[in-house]
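Lab notebook page, bench 4
Experiment: in silico fold of construct C2
Operator: M.H.
Input chain length: 69 residues
Purpose: comparison with the prior construct
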Amino acid sequence: MAYVKVEEGEPLEKSIKKFKRMVEKEGIIREWKLREYYEKPSTIRNRVNKANARKQMKKVRKMHASKAY
């Protein structure tokens, strides 16, 4: 879950930008406008690798939860 600690005296706009970057980085919401025209191959590779890692972790958690101890 994405969260941002707001420093005292920090402008609200700056905090919102930080939160937006954090949400996009974690893959909760993707900014499609940025990738509308061209996406670097390394960025594509990183995004796919992170998605695969999330799927794998979900599978592992599900497997551990289903085991009866």
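Observations: The two ends are 29 Å apart (CA to CA). The mean pLDDT is 83.
Next step: discuss at group meeting.
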